């Protein structure tokens, strides 16, 4: 890893740093109040590293849920990651052993960054990808562990800080809108998201929206490729 790679990756992950740090602190505080110290917070964020599922896990630790039921619950909560991985299969394959870590570390925010980055030609894409993923997880581990250490000593209200993640997605969407000739993928995503939200509600719309988006993008694949070809020619 070169200094240039680390600097570029760090600048790209700054929004994730602030979001993960405060969200991780919130998780650590909840975990500590449930009776688990910072050692648990460190290893859970290092091994599980599942964002929303970690918050669900706090209630499961003392709930007596069976292993099979826990596996099914985790799969349902994190199933959207199946679709994230589809778009990076080929790129992760050529990364060798590091590809396994990339699969493990592909969170919502890391996926968004990898999709939105325009890596300078002088930098190695594989090294940038790995560095971004590693930095994002280090932020999450630091936040979770710090939150568990501080426990109930934090006196300020952190309500709304998680909006940093939403803001990150909005910025990436706008950059991709202006950066690509074809707007079909963006329009498909918006339409499927809104339709699924209306039909399934806020708590269950993500997976149906992703399935519908993938199906429609396959239908419009040729149109998207034509738009990209026009962009290259221009």
Automatic annotation (TrEMBL):
GO terms for biological process: L-valine transmembrane transport. The keyword Transmembrane applies. Belongs to the AzlC family. Its main location: membrane. It holds the Pfam family AzlC. One of its GO terms (cellular component) is plasma membrane. It comes from Acetobacterium bakii. InterPro entries: Brnchd-chn_aa_trnsp_permease. This is Branched-chain amino acid ABC transporter permease. The chain crosses the membrane at residues 12-31, 139-156, 163-180, 186-219. Keywords: Cell membrane, Membrane, Transmembrane, Transmembrane helix, Transport. It is found in: Cell membrane. It is a multi-pass membrane protein.
């Amino acid at each position: 890893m070169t200094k240039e790679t680390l600097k570029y990756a760090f600048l790209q992950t700054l929004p994730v740093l602030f979001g993960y740090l405060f969200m991780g602190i919130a998780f650590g505080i909840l975990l500590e109040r449930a009776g688990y110290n910072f050692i648990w917070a460190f290893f859970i964020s290092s091994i599980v590293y599942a964002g929303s599922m970690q918050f669900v896990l706090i209630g499961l630790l003392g709930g007596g849920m069976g292993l099979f039921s826990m596996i099914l619950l985790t799969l349902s909560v994190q199933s959207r990651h199946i679709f994230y991985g589809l778009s990076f299969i080929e790129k992760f394959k050529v990364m060798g052993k590091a590809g396994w870590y990339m699969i493990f570390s592909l969170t919502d925010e890391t996926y968004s960054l990898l999709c939105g980055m325009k890596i300078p030609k002088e930098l190695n894409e594989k090294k940038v990808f790995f560095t971004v993923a590693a930095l994002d997880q280090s932020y999450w581990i630091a936040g979770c562990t710090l939150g568990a250490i501080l426990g109930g000593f934090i006196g300020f209200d952190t309500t709304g800080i998680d909006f940093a993640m939403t803001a990150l997605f909005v910025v990436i969407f706008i950059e991709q809108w202006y950066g690509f000739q074809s707007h079909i993928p963006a329009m498909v995503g918006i339409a499927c998201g809104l339709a699924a939200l209306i039909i399934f509600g806020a708590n269950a719309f993500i997976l149906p929206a992703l399935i519908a988006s993938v199906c429609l993008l396959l239908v419009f694949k040729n149109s998207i490729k034509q738009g990209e070809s026009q962009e290259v020619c221009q």
